[in-house]
Amino acid sequence: MVDPIIESERDSTVKDICVIGTGPSGLGALKIIADSPQYKAGLWRPVAFEAREEIGGVWVPAPPTDNPPLTPLYDSLTTNLPHPLMAYPSFPFPPSTLLYPPASTVLKYLQSYASHFDINQHIRVNTSVRSVDWDKELSRWRVRTSPTSSGADAPTGESLFDLVVVANGHYRVPRYPDIPGLDAWLAIGKTSHAAWYRHARDIGDTILVVGGGPSGLDIADEMLAVSRTVVHSIPGTKRADRGSLKLRGRITEFADVTEGRVVFEDGTSESGIDHCILATGYEHSLPFLPGTLLQQSLPPPIPPIPETLYNSTYHIFPLAKQMFPLVTSFPTSSLAFVVLQYRIIPFALVETQMRAVLKAFAVPESIDPANEAVDIVSRYEELRKQVGDDERVIARAWHKLEGEEQFQYQDELHKYVGGEYAGPEWKVPDWYREVWEYKFKLRDEWKELVRIGEAERWVQGVGEAGGAEGTKEWLELMRRVIRRAEDRQAAPSSQRGAKL
């Protein structure tokens, strides 16, 4: 317990900020805090708790021994965005970096980011956050922690904070689809989640991969090298056979487990499946928040907006600006969730979001609950028009910001922050939109350059000018890669493998 006498004597002008997690989001949060005039004046004191032995989050490799594994990082993983787009706007990747770098390069980049901005001093590694609860009498957050290595039942230490930034990520707890018959496949080990996947290995002649995201595509491609047949289930995909690869739609039933048979949305089925790998994503998991503050269920339909915070595992709701709990049990501006969104550029987003977090922390009245409620209802109604009335489907779509929507969101946050950040120089650059539009073509063509051994030559010296000129060099390189893809596509099939 904190001595109330000591607490009453503390300097109320100094605010303590807790950051949970030091993956890319937590590091970005610390950097933006360190940029603030309040930090430089000694008025804001951040502390970040990291459960693992080092910073970097999912980019730190680990064997698939824990349940669930500490990271879903597989051996061959490279970024699915080109690094000029992926990077923190304040800190580019080094010159000559491969356009889609491997995980080891990203980890080194994150370590360099932390060192460059001198934020390691605020990080406590091997420290797990066990609980975060609001103390109404003290109007502060009680945060209990203990050494990760000592286990969840170890005695906890306690600290008080004025603001908590939740940056623990959402790629740890595997999501298992609700499909009839799946439990029987899991029970006998005939199905595993991609969280345990590290590299292709012989686990049978016929392998089923479920999921069409980046990991599902990578795993299906890798498993073709060691399996006779790979059946790849992607919702909405038309049935097609491409040699050893069978593309199929959504699975509606995991049927006879002995026979290894599954049924698809078009009514067809496949038999003889030896093993299934589920690349079906991950759940939002916030075990340190008690049930009194966060209910583990779908929220009720709106309006009205509920007074309680909910975790549907797909989204956290209701949040002002998709960050701040719109509840009355504690101040809205005292707790913030960063980078809950997906289908976005995360490193850039966290720096923008944290400027908004610090604005709300410094000026709590800048968040208007009535206006925020209107925005939430408007988004809810818009999603209902797009996806229907199913609350689960709405929840899945809630934090999904695709294409222009994510850029508008960032611009709106900077407008909210105001001051210099409301100026045109802080708007998302047009080249972000350009590269985002061509991201699939760009990555496919880059894979071809890697395949023929030309990738390193293409990036040699690119970015050495630094600053805006360095960015222009990277943009011109990406445009060249796109032009190469378009030229090869237009060329006769006999010439497509040779054009450089």
Amount of helix: 25-40%
The order of strands across the largest sheet is 9-17-10-11-13-12
Annotated CATH homologous superfamily of the largest domain: FAD/NAD(P)-binding domain
| Beta-strand share of residues | 15-25%
In CATH, the architecture of the largest domain is 3-Layer(bba) Sandwich
Annotated CATH topology of the largest domain: FAD/NAD(P)-binding domain
Mean pLDDT: 94
Q: What's the structural domain tally? A: 3
What class do helices, strands and sheet pairing give?
Answer: alpha/beta
In terms of per-residue confidence, which ranges show pLDDT below 50 for 5 or more consecutive residues? 1-6
| CATH domain class name of the largest domain | Alpha Beta
Number of strands: 24
N- and C-termini, Cα separation: 68 Å
What is the overall silhouette?
globular
The major beta sheet can be summarized as:
6 strands, mixed
The Cα radius of gyration reads 24 Å
Contiguous helical run count: 15
Protein name: FAD/NAD(P)-binding domain-containing protein
Keywords: FAD, Flavoprotein, NADP, Oxidoreductase
Family: Belongs to the FMO family.
Pfam family, one: FMO-like
